[in-house]
Amino acid sequence: MSDYTEEAIELHKQVKGKIGIMLKTEVVSRDDLSKVYTPGVAAVSSGIADGSLDVREVTMKGNTIAVVTDGSAVLGLGNIGPEAALPVMEGKAMLFKELGGVNAMPICLNTKTKEETIACVRAIAPGFGGINLEDIAAPDCFAIEDALQDLGIPVFHDDQHATAIVVYAGLINALKVIQKDSPLKIIVNGAGAAGVAITRLLARAPEQYAVSIEDILVCDSKGIISKDREGLNDIKKSLLDYTNKDNISGLLSDAMQNADVFIGVSKGNVVSRDMVRSMKDSSIIFAMANPTPEITPDEAREAGAAIVATGRSDHYNQVNNVLAFPGIFKAALQYGYPQITEDMKYRVAYALAQYVKNPGVDSIIPNALDKGVVDAILESLTGL
């Protein structure tokens, strides 16, 4: 695996921020100034105030979102704070613009509680057409997203849902490649934002999108989440409504025995070759911890895995949420959807899977930078 540390630091020093502001109209004359600012702009503001003008049609609100974080769960780095989160939020804003044509502004909040974050997002919402929540630690991320669904603009926690959507798409195609249709034993390692969302999306799928599942076991750092575990938070307890039907206890190594699929959204190097060998034949490994996967692709394949995916861009089968969020927000803004619904998530997952015409061992999901993906998502979300 390549190490981009020095190159990334040098690039960031050179550009001093990866995004900027571009003017859409010239201001070179007194007439220009009179139209974009005073006195002309007063007519636009008055029109918005009295309802004769739609704010989305005459301001940036129609195609601009806020990428909001409190810096509490940044990549695989943890709670490093809002300033250290800024480079990541800039990168996310770049991808929104480059891949979806959506303007995005990084908003890094110095908040310490979910209530503060909710209040801040409510306060800034009038200036944006959508809110992309990013790198906010569980379980607060769930409460924050739920509390903001009444804003009248889409509020979407990318780490949860975009990740889950891309995982689902990859799994659909992986099953096509290995030609497996028997019920699956699936292991989800990591019970944070992504792990919970992946589990929910898999377990709650409507019939037309569902894969056949025997059971799902969710593991955290202490092992399998079961009814016998003490100290589970409410989110982890809720997972037991549709996982671990036999109430199995034990460690990750116990969970992986005779499993068909491993989905890792946890930390690096927690899966051994022996654990992969204990799985069923033609096993599927999604080792998505960043920057270090739960097991390297070479190790997983040597141990017998049929298909391996990671979250890294320097490997085949990159499970990257960038495949989902630009198109989802572009559709929500373009079509005026006030929320991103469960049905929309399944439609996008299926569209991503179908976009790969001939999936193979090293091509179960589209390339992360394939701009045609956005058009496929737009089509899947038209007319809802």
Could you give a short description of this structure?
This protein has two domains: 5-153, Malic enzyme, N-terminal domain (Rossmann fold); 158-384, Rossmann fold.
Description:
The chain is 41% helix and 12% strand. The mean pLDDT is 95. It has 16 helices and ten strands. The protein has helices at 5-15, 30-36, 41-50, 55-58, 82-100, 114-124, 140-147, 158-178, 193-203, 234-239, 252-255, 273-277, 297-302, 325-335, 342-355, 372-380; strands at 64-69, 103-108, 130-133, 155-157, 184-189, 213-220, 223-224, 261-264, 284-287, 307-310. Strands 7-6-5-8-9-10 form a six-stranded mixed beta sheet. A four-stranded parallel beta sheet has the order 2-1-3-4, with helices on both faces. By secondary structure, it is α/β, with parallel strands linked by helices. Strand 3, helix 7 and strand 4 form a beta-alpha-beta unit.
What key phrases describe this protein's structure?
384 residues, alpha/beta, Rossmann fold, 2 domains, six-stranded mixed beta sheet
